[in-house]
Amino acid sequence: MRIASTISDAGEALLALLANPDADHDLRLQALNPGDWEELAALAGRTRSAPQLHEYLARMAETSVPAALMHQLAEAARTHSLASLSQAQGLVAAVRILEHAGLKVLALKGASLAFRDYPKPQLRPLRDIDLLLPIDQVEEGERVLLAHDGYRRAKWAVPHGVEHGHQMPEIVDRQRGMVIELHHGLNARNWNESDLLLEQMWAEAEQMELFGQAIAVPSAAANLLHLIEHTTLHHAFANGPLVLSDLHYLGRAHRIDWDRIAARAEQLNLGRSLDLIAALARAYGACWVRGGLGIASQERVEIAAVALLADDETHRQHELLHRQAQRAEGEGSASVAIKRMLRPNPHELARLSGHPPTSVLRWLGYLAWLAEKGGRYRRSASDPALQAANAERIALVDWLGGS
Fold it and tell me: Which of 70, 209, 262, 334 lies 20 to 30 Å from 196, alpha-carbon distance?
C-alpha cells in the first residue's frame, strides 16, 4: 500500500526496507523497473543507507537490479566499511586522550548504534563523532584535543565558548579526516526539557568496549529519546530515514520498556514526536511499535515521510522560507531579504571563499554567497508547491512542539 502519493516506488521501497530490515521485501523490490532501480540507488547513496540496501540485495535469491548498480552498491558498502573502522579507531583515540586528562566523556547517538546495536558497524554510517562532556569540562576538552598534534579546529569553525549553542566548534582528526563535535548540551533550539534528558543520559550511562577501550554511551532508553528529539524538534525530519532502522535495531538489541518510554516522552514534551515516528514506522512495516503508540494522522505521516527523503536543496529552501517567516514579524519578506544580504553568515562566506570565518578574506566569497542565496530565494518565492509544502512542515513542527 502506498503511504504518500508524492513518494515514488523507489522511495517507498527504501522506507519499508529501513523500517524493518528483517522483513521480506522481495516482491516489492522485484517489481521495480530499471528507472526505479536507478532512483533507489541514488536515494540510498544520498541518505547513507546504501550499505543496508546492499546487505539486503546480497541475500536475495533473485533480483532484477542491474549488475552495474549492484557493483555501485557493493563499492559503497566497502567504502563505508573502511570508514567505520577508521571512525572506531578515531573514537577510541579521542576518548583515551580526553579521559587521560581527567575528563568525563560520553559518546552520543550514532556511536553506540554503529558499534553496539547494529549487526555490522558499516550498516550505520556516521557523519561525525559526537562526544558529550559536562559543561564545566567541555572547554578544557577542546583545549586538550587542540593541543595534540593529531587534531585541529575545522577551517570553517569560529572559536566560541559554551555561551554559544550546545556544542563547541568542530575539531578535525588530522589522520582520519573525521570531524569530532564536543557537546555540552543536546539541542541548540528552544527545547525547554533538554536538561532533563541530559541528566538522564549521565545518570543511566552504560559502557561499550571498542578495541579494548571502555567507552561510556547513553542507555538504550536515553539514546532512543534523543533520536526522537533529534529527528523531530531539532531537524524536522531533515536528517534522513536512517532513524527508522535505528529504532528497529535499538528495539532488537535491547529490551525496551515502551510504557516507560512513552511516559518519559510525555515528561520531555516528546509525546507527539514519539507518536508520529511510531505511526510512520508502523505504516512502513516496523515490528517494534507497541500498543497505543503511533497515534498520528495520515496527513502528518505523509509530511514526515516526504521530508525524510527530501534532498539537501529542498531542505535549504524550506529553512530559508522558515527563517524569513520567523524574522519578518510584520515586515515584508523583501525587506527581510535585503537586511539578510547585508549580514551574511561568516561560516558560509568561509565555505565559499576558502578562508577562515574570522579572516577579512572571507568576504571574497560574498558574490558567490549572494548568487547562491539570491537564486535560492527566487526559486523558493516563485514556487507555490514549495511554499505550500513549507507551510505544512512548519505546521507540523508547531504541532510537535505542542502549539
Answer: 209
> Left, alpha or beta for 354 (phi > 0: left; psi -120 to 50: alpha)?
left
Q: What is the pTM of this model?
A: 0.87
Closest to 25 in 3D by CA, of 38, 48, 9, 43: 9
Q: What is the pLDDT of residues 130-185, one digit of tens each?
A: 999 999 999 999 999 999 999 999 988 878 888 888 899 999 999 999 999 999 99
- Rounded Cα distance, 377 and 317, in Å: 7
Nearest to 240 by CA among 227, 224, 251: 227
Residue type, 253: A
> Under 8 Å CB-to-CB from 292, ≥6 apart: which residues?
262
Percent residues over pLDDT 70 in the chain:
86
Residues whose CB is less than 8 angstroms from the CB of residue 346 and which lie 6 or more positions away in sequence, other chains included: 158, 357, 358, 362
CA distance 114 to 27: 29
- Three-state SS string over the chain comes to CCCCCCCCHHHHHHHHHHHCCCCCCHHHHHCCCHHHHHHHHHHHHHCCCHHHHHHHHHCCCCCCCCHHHHHHHHHHHHHHHHHHHHHHHHHHHHHHHHHHCCCCCEECCHHHHHHHHCCCHHHCCCCCEEEECCCCCHHHHHHHHHCCCCEEECCCCCCCCCCCCCECCCEEECCCCCEEEEECCCCCCCCCCHHHHHHHHHHCCEEEEECCEEEEECCHHHHHHHHHHHHHHHCCCCCCCHHHHHHHHHHHHCCCCHHHHHHHHHHCCCHHHHHHHHHHHHHCCCCCCCCCCCCCCHHHHHHHHHHHHCCHHHHHHHHHHHHHHHHHCCCCHHHHHHHHHCCCCHHHHHHHHCCCCCCHHHHHHHHHHHHHHHHHHHHHHCCHHHHHHHHHHHHHHHHHCCC
Write the pLDDT tens digit of every residue in 36-51. Answer: 999 999 999 999 999 9
